């Protein structure tokens, strides 16, 4: 099975700023490209931080309420420093969490979740910026056509990986939801089949009504059977 990689989904035309880019130019860039954050790079195009809308809004939030209805905020020292900053170096969040082009969608999603970030700059082997991957980019795997998902399960999971004879298992896919029916050789193969199908890009859920010819889970006295026969009185 070939999982979609970050390189397949990332945006390669990436806006970026340097450490000395001023506040207004950053705000203009976010508006011009309709983005919510921009990487900050050094002279070798290596990401050193990220400036987001939230970083810029700290300056606005630190201002006094012009009509006097709200009390002044008491920000932490780090927030006060960002509110007073006028260039990317003072505004940015650092260190920056990055991704690699060869990561799978799963790897990128886990790093985003753990880091609580919405996007990751993508860097090459030398650490230079080559793209950006966002949550929206990762969700594009769920736009795969049902036919493409079914064909990958038939070809890569059932035939090539598990060696199940063509026609032994029938695969139906509707809106990314996979249902499996048919008969496999061993009972233990059912859980393996379902797990591998769940790992196919674009799959939302997997259900099965698979039977088996041999129950190999009752060691050491495995015996022939099936879900139907074992449920029969």
- Total beta-strand segments: 9
Q: Sheet bearing the most strands, described?
A: 4 strands, mixed
CATH fold annotation of the largest domain = CBS-domain
Order of helices and strands: HEHEEHHHHEEHHEEHEEH
Which architecture name of the largest domain does CATH use?
A: Roll
Strand order of the largest sheet: 6-7-8-9
- Cα radius of gyration in angstroms: 26 Å
How large is the share of residues in beta strands?
15-25%
Overall description:
The protein has 233 residues and is of the alpha/beta class. 36% of the residues lie in helices and 23% in strands. It has two domains: 6-141, CBS-domain (Roll); 144-231, no CATH class. The protein contains ten helices and nine strands. The strands form three sheets. It has a four-stranded mixed β-sheet with strand order 6-7-8-9, with helices on one face. Strands 1-2-3 form a three-stranded mixed β-sheet. A two-stranded antiparallel sheet has the order 4-5. α3 packs across α4 (77-84).
How do the helices and strands line up, and which of them pair or pack?
Layout: H1 6-9, E1 17-18, H2 23-33, E2 37-41, E3 47-52, H3 53-61, H4 77-84, H5 88-91, H6 105-115, E4 119-123, E5 129-134, H7 135-139, H8 146-161, E6 169-174, E7 177-186, H9 188-198, E8 205-215, E9 223-224, H10 227-231
Parallel strand pairs: 1-2, 7-8
Antiparallel strand pairs: 2-3, 4-5, 6-7, 8-9
Summarize this, please?
The protein folds into two domains: 6-141, CBS-domain; 144-231, no CATH class.
């Amino acid at each position: 099975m070939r999982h979609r990689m970050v390189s397949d989904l990332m945006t390669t035309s990436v806006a970026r700023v340097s450490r000395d880019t001023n506040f207004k130019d950053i705000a203009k860039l976010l508006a011009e490209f309709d983005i919510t954050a921009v990487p900050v790079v050094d002279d070798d195009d290596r990401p050193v931080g990220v400036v987001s809308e939230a970083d810029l809004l700290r300056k606005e939030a630190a201002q006094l309420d012009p009509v006097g209805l709200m009390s002044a905020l008491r920000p932490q020292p780090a927030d006060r420093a960002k509110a007073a900053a006028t260039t990317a170096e003072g505004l940015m969040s650092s260190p920056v969490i990055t991704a690699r082009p060869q990561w799978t969608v799963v790897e990128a999603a886990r790093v985003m979740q753990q880091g609580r970030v919405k996007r990751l700059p993508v860097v090459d082997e030398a650490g230079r910026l080559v793209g950006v991957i966002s949550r929206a980019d990762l969700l594009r795997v769920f736009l795969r056509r049902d036919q493409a998902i079914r064909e990958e399960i038939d070809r890569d999971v059932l035939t090539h990986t598990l060696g199940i004879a063509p026609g032994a298992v029938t695969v139906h896919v509707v809106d990314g939801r996979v249902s499996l029916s048919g008969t496999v050789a061993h009972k233990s193969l059912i859980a393996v089949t379902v797990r591998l199908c769940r790992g196919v890009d674009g799959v939302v859920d997997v259900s099965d009504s698979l039977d088996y010819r041999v129950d190999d889970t009752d060691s050491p006295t495995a015996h022939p059977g099936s879900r139907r026969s074992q449920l029969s009185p």
